[in-house]
User: Which sequence fits this backbone?
């Protein structure tokens, strides 16, 4: 009696990427990235408590092109995680499970993320 090998669990090489799977993976990644962004923000605020000299050093780091890029990434990550978290909250309440709704809400999360990020940065540089 010969036994046939059991199929392996499906993995990324089997499934075609979909908006739902990509946003799910991105949600987990942004959750981890937010931790590092909050560490940078905490360091910056902590240096303000130590006095003007240390804050000037922190400000020069955060105000550099790399610091601004990191802060832009942090704000993008924050707004994405917020928008997708609200989407998950709607799912927890039982709304939006139809395939078309899931896809549409995924694109809406991306649009809201971009709009909120650009609005926050526009407000930061206009004021």
Assistant:
């Amino acid at each position: 009696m010969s036994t046939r090998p059991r199929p392996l669990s499906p993995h990324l090489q089997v499934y075609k990427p979909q908006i739902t799977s990509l946003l799910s993976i991105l949600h987990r990644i942004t959750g981890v990235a937010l931790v590092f962004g909050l560490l940078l923000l905490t360091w910056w605020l902590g240096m303000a408590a130590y006095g003007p000299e240390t804050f000037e050093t922190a400000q020069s780091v955060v105000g550099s092109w790399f610091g601004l890029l990191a802060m832009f990434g942090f704000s993008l990550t924050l707004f994405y995680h917020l928008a997708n978290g609200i989407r998950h909250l709607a799912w927890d309440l039982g709304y939006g499970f139809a395939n078309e709704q899931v896809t549409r809400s995924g694109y809406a999360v991306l649009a809201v993320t971009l709009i909120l990020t650009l609005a926050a940065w526009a407000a930061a540089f206009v004021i």
